[in-house]
Amino acid sequence: MISAQQNKQEEKELLLVFIDLQGQRTMTFNDFDKGFDLFINKEATEQEYIQLVDICTKTFSSISYQIKEILKMHQFELIKQIQQLEKTKLEKVVKYQSLMTETVYGQVDYSQDISNVKKELEELKMEINEKIQDLHCILADEYSD
């Protein structure tokens, strides 16, 4: 039988793994953004961008799988909320990149839509960061040794 202390320690370890995965996800988003900027500014080819998208997609998929495994072991509500926000963020990033690509390479100027999506992305990032900060506070308050 698992003691309350062992259970608490396992929960703490799962939260720490999640925080590490979240850091990896943030770095992958940064790489994705930088790669898109290179592509949109014609400093990278379409093929290079497609390769980057493939790498980032695989990384995001792996991170998502690992987080789902954490949630199978323990139903952390805060992690579920962060996951949903990250999903929405990824959808907004794809929308932003589509609008930018059409504006730069296509026939239509979506500048206003791009501005709105960028604002939504910034709000999402702030909300995610607040939830991550909440998670750090929970770790400090409830799981300190």
TrEMBL record:
Keywords: Coiled coil. Residues 107-138 form a coiled coil. The keyword Coiled coil applies. It holds the Pfam family DNA_repr_REX1B. This is Uncharacterized protein.
